[in-house]
Every structure is written in structure tokens, then in C-alpha cells.
Amino acid sequence: MREQLYFWVERYLFSPNTLQKILSYILLPITLLYCLIVYFKRLLSVARGYGLPIISVGNLIVGGSGKTPFTIALAKDLDHVAIVLRGYKREGTGLSVVSQYGVITSTVSKSGDEAMLMAKMLPKATVIVSVDRVEGILKAKALGSKVVILDDGFSKSSIKKLDILLKPSHPMPNTFCLPSGAFRESATLYKKADLVAVEDRDFHRVVEIKNPTDRMVLVTAISKPQRLDKYLPTFIEKVYYPDHYNYSGNELEAILRKYSADSILTTQKDAVKMDNFRIDLSILELEMTLEPYIYERVNKYIKDFAKIS
Question: Could you tell me if 215 and 260 are in contact, meaning their C-beta atoms sit under 8 angstroms apart?
Fold first, then answer.
């Protein structure tokens, strides 16, 4: 029942039918109240610095937008960088150091899938999960980090930072805020960002299947899983779970039997939650390529910060 509700909400936000569109208009009074609360919260915030350059990679729309691979691409060539993120759907809510300079000190259940993927992909970085982002920034500084990247930090208007907003290349069905639409804050706030990166213009996804087999079944728990379709073999069976779902070995083995598959095809983010099972995996290996001006803008921000500090 919970999974059906999740996918219904996802369709409502991103590809609504007629009844769902009517519902979105009925909810507009609640949407207006939500927008006012978010607006005044931002208006009353005073941005404070913490003695090191902070770069936020965020988006205005709920669900997957490429923040994790974008952050990985941005961080991989930076020295003494820390990634601070919330660690969605992890066990516990306190601060936890997931990795320090490639040494992983946590489990995926305690870190969350996105943080563990970053820890594995960024051997030069420190990865910290913390609901309180300021606490995470201060911990990163105490550990010797010289630069912090905030994952999904645009709404943290009380933190002085360079704001990068990711924007989808396709138009949204509407530009309403929650609960009438998929925007967490008004679409007009794109103009408040220091840099707006549009998918397929400013950043691009390159996907390759590692360890392919003759008979694969796709199993994934990411938001909007249909966005994987263009990278998939034709006529492949697909099994979708809600975003950040925690798998069990038994259910994955049951899927292999049901579809008479040789391996499970999945994303890198999903794979960190399947590594401990004795199951053959084929991986949709994603590399994000960013336009050079993005690196130039970030490096300039870091150098300018050093000059004035």
C-alpha cells in the first residue's frame, strides 16, 4: 500500500492525469500558505560564514535531479574537500563521519545510500552526514577540510555559500510549490542562485553498463526511474521500488528466479545497498561531465575566499 501511494504521488507531481491536475488546483490555498512560510523564513535569515568556502549543490524540485553525481564530479579534483549531506533514510539523525580521505568508517545503513556512494567514489574527500548542516560544516573544519560542498543546501539561507542550482532540461507540468506541484520553493528563485546548471546543456550524463549478462532484470529505487529508459537494453524487465528503499537478499533472489535472470541491473546508488548479498550485479555506471565554466566559477570562488580571509 505504501509503495502504491509513493508511485501515485510521483505521477501526481511529474506526470499528472486530469484528475490529479484538478486536485493540484484544489490544493492551491495550502500551497500559497506553504510558499508564504518558506518565503518569510528565507527573508528573515541572515547568512553567516564559517571561515571556509562553502559550495551548495541544490535543486528547487523534489526528487532526483542529479545532485549526487554532480557533487562527485565537482569534488573529485578538489583538495581537502568535505561533503556534508543530510543522509536521507539512514538509521539515526545525529552527525556521523562516513569517510575521511577514502577511509570508510560507517555502514550504508548508518550513512544512507548517497553518502556511501560519495565515500566510495571520492577517495580524497571527507563525507559527513548531519541533519544540522552547520554542525556538519564545523566538524569538517575541525577535521582539517579547506572546502565544504553542501549537498542539497540551497534552502539553508542562513549559511553564506556559493549556490549552484540544477535545473531539468524539460519543462515541468506546472511551476506550483508543494503540495500542488513539485517545487520546494518558488521557481522565481532560480534567479537568486549564483549559478544555474541546466541538464544536457551545462552538465551531461554518460552511462555504461558494467558486467552485462545475457539476461538482466532492472531493479532500482530512485526517484523517477523512467529516466533510466534511454540507457537500457530493449525489452528488459523492470522492478521499481520507492526512492532510497532498503533491499533484502531474499527479495532480490526472488526477482532473479521470477524473471529467470542471470544478474540484476541496477544503479551505483542502489548497488551500495546490494554489495553484501551474494547476487550477480550489472551496474549502470554513471559519469557526470560538467562544462568547464562550472569548474572555473567554483575555483574562482575558492581562490577569492582565500584572498579575503
Answer: yes
Closest CA to 224 of 9, 70, 57: 9
pLDDT tens-digit map of 12-60: 999 999 999 999 999 999 999 999 999 999 999 999 999 999 999 999 9
Shared-domain flag, residues 254 and 106: no
Domain that holds residue 52: 43-203+289-308
Dist. CA 82–CA 66, nearest whole Å? 19
pTM of the model: 0.92
Residues 274 and 303 in one domain: no
Sheet holding 54-59, edge to edge: 103-104, 96-100, 126-129, 81-85, 147-151, 54-59, 162-167, 195-198
**Interstrand relation of 237-240 and 281-290 (parallel, antiparallel or unpaired):** unpaired
DSSP state of 176: P
| Distance from C-alpha of 130 to C-alpha of 84, rounded to nearest angstrom | 7
**What are the Cα distances from residue 130, in Å, to 43, 160, 176?**
24, 18, 29
Q: Which of these, 90, 84, 147, 88, lies nearest to 119 by C-alpha position? A: 84
